[in-house]
Model the fold of this input.
Amino acid sequence: MNDDDYSATELGSHWFEGPTPDPTPDRVEGEVLRFGPGVTAAAARRAENTPTAAQIWHGTLPGTPPPRRPRSRRPLRYVPAAVILLAVLAWLAWREYGPQVAVQDVAVTAPEGRLGCDGTANVLGVVRTDGRPGTLTYHWERSDGTRSAPLRETLTRGRKEARLHLLWTFQGPGTHQAVARLVITSPTPRTAEDTFTYRCG
Done:
């Protein structure tokens, strides 16, 4: 095109097109006609609540709670050990604070007949219980004014009898009417005794 034919006042015909006729409504909402970009509040809310492809893909739809994360199974590994520990503690507590052995009867038996010179008497004490586990605390007393140190006898479950021995040795000539006494101090105070004779010369 030659410069002489160019005019600043010449514009393409598309610059002079008149207004277009009324466009067809985008949608009909009740009795309200929606044209173009105009948005009502209700339509805006619906648009906000309309899930996008990204929301559907990631599971973040509006109004739905976020997905729960899978729980770790790691703490379950310690459950058996915890159960065993609790069982052991319960058993120890029951043994320490549970029902204790109960003494039902105590008897002492001394040797029959006379004990000769420089002899040793084997005195037997028999303690009968109810068979529960526990510990007997006891001591022996002798008629010569002596007594043993505190002694202990442990009873297991099902054991209903404890046999306790006292060895009493005599020396030298003389005669002595001996008395051996068994004293149970716990769990229930009980006492039993028997006599025998030592004679030498």
About this structure: The CA atoms of residues 99 and 132 lie 8 Å apart. The two ends are 166 Å apart (CA to CA). Confidence is low (pLDDT under 50) at residues 6-16, 26-35.
